[in-house]
Amino acid sequence: MTTFITHLECTSCGTQYDCTTLQNFCTKCQKPLFPIYDLGGVGRVLTRDVLKTREKSLWRYREVLPLPLDVQPVTFGEGGTPLLPAPRFGERFGLTNLLVKDEGQNPTQSFKARGMATAVSMAKHLGATKLAVPSAGNAGGAMAAYAARAGLEAHVFMPSDTPRANIIECREVGAHVTLIDGLITDCGAEIANCKAAEGWFDMSTLKEPYRVEGKKTLGYELAEQLDWELPDVVLYPTGGGTGLIGMWKAFDEMETLGWIGSKRPRMFTIQASGCAPIVRAFQAGENAAPEFPNAHTVASGLRVPKAVGDFIMLQILRESGGGAITIEDDEMIRVTRDVGASEGLFVAPEGAACFAALKPLLERGKIRRDERIVIFNTGSGIKYLECYEA
Ligand SMILES: Cc1ncc(COP(=O)(O)O)c(C=O)c1O
Ligand SMILES: [Zn+2]
User: Fold this and answer.
1) 296 C-alpha vs ligand 1 centroid, how far in Å?
2) The predicted structure's pLDDT at residue 389
3) DSSP letters along 366-389, please?
4) How far is Cα 28 from Cα 40, in angstroms, rounded to an integer?
5) Best of 101, 111, 162, 279 to mutate for ligand 1, by most ligand atoms within 8 A of CB?
6) Model-level pTM greater than 0.90?
């Protein structure tokens, strides 16, 4: 046995697909596919005790990742980021148990490294040679770096107003960069148009089945770092939502493995006021989120006007008893310095949005001061100097 993945399954219609060839969407309903594992088999070799002996990267969860055990991953040592207490920032609002998962410490300075480590490893393993991705910035940088490490060609399509650091990073690690005068959805459409003729494999998030697997390790790490007791509340800066969706999948897998109980955190989506399709759909009681018109925000990772995993996210927010809230750009930028000065972390505006959300969530009675609250700082502020220079 070299792998515990058994097949891929459509998140909407349940159709099953082979996991030994390259796949994108479900061909019947054009929805995302999820990898499914033989968790009974996993549980016989991987236990919470065995994990204590493993390396610090996300590959410690190897049996619940899609790459066969005898295949070398494409890796920079991603994952294993610290879960840091934020007592001084928390104190401002009387919060006694505020924690930050600092994803800015990943290779390429964002949590996108997790998804790209598994997705690029699988793409290479299954025979892709040219990878293409639409990106708000960080996913492009991560894919470019992992593709270079794998010896694969990288084509990154980004909006022309993407932070400069992301654009330069992609070029300097050898990617072909195309800037589009539009949004990430326009970049995705351009790739869809060209990919057949160019022989590109489409690495758009949730349009291929393995980025979510890398992102789900956020959930495994959270449980392990909290000694297998999930927090009360999770605040997640949401664009495409892959991390939120991945964590929820991890929670279910861990419960099946007998590693955690049935308690789940209340999951909150944090979006920018200028681009809040999920917040709007959540508040309207919808099951899907239509495209958000005239999307704009300095938090480029949140500038995703239409997410293919919208229906999955909305279901998670409701099932968990969580919610969705918007933050103004000015507030993100202001709070970045509060977080920096009180905790020493230079967070990305996306992460800052979660810190900014604490006050309104407290005021609206959505979170309590004594709860264990985890914020995902998904990237480093270093990539966004333009936002802070003004
Ligand atoms: C720093 C940062 N935070 C959050 C997001 C949104 O992530 P997701 O697509 O998982 O919602 C992105 C995506 O580009 C990002 O770069
Ligand atoms: Zn389907």
Assistant:
1) 15
2) 85
3) SS-TTS-EEEEE-BBGGGGHHHHH
4) 29
5) 111
6) yes
- Average pLDDT over every residue of 258-283: 98
Q: How far is the CA of 34 from the centre of ligand 2 (A)?
A: 11
Q: Which two tokens stand for residue 294?
A: 């005239």
Rounded Cα distance, 243 and 374, in Å: 14
Residue 242 amino acid letter: T
Cα 278 to Cα 12, 238, 331, 347: the distances in Å are: 18, 8, 20, 23
What's the mean pLDDT in 72-99?
A: 98
Ligand 1 centre and the CA of 131: distance in Å? 20
Atom 5 (ligand 1): residue with closest C-alpha?
301
Q: Give the pLDDT of residue 1.
A: 63
Which ligand 1 atom is nearest residue 348's CA? Answer: 1
Average pLDDT over residues 103-123: 98
Please give the structure tokens belonging to residue 25. 């969407």
For every residue of 39-87, DSSP letters joined together read HHHHHHH--HHHHTTS-SSGGGGGGGSSS-TTS----S------EEE-H
Please give the average per-residue pLDDT across 353-364, as a whole number: 98
Closest CA to 254 of 108, 39, 35, 75: 39
- Residues 302-321 have a mean pLDDT of 97
Q: How many Å apart are CA 238 and CA 240, to the nearest integer?
A: 6
Ligand 1 site, CB within 6 A: 110, 112, 136-139, 205, 237-243, 301, 348, 350, 378-379
Using alpha carbons, list the distances in angstroms from residue 227 to 18, 90, 216, 308. Answer: 35, 22, 17, 33
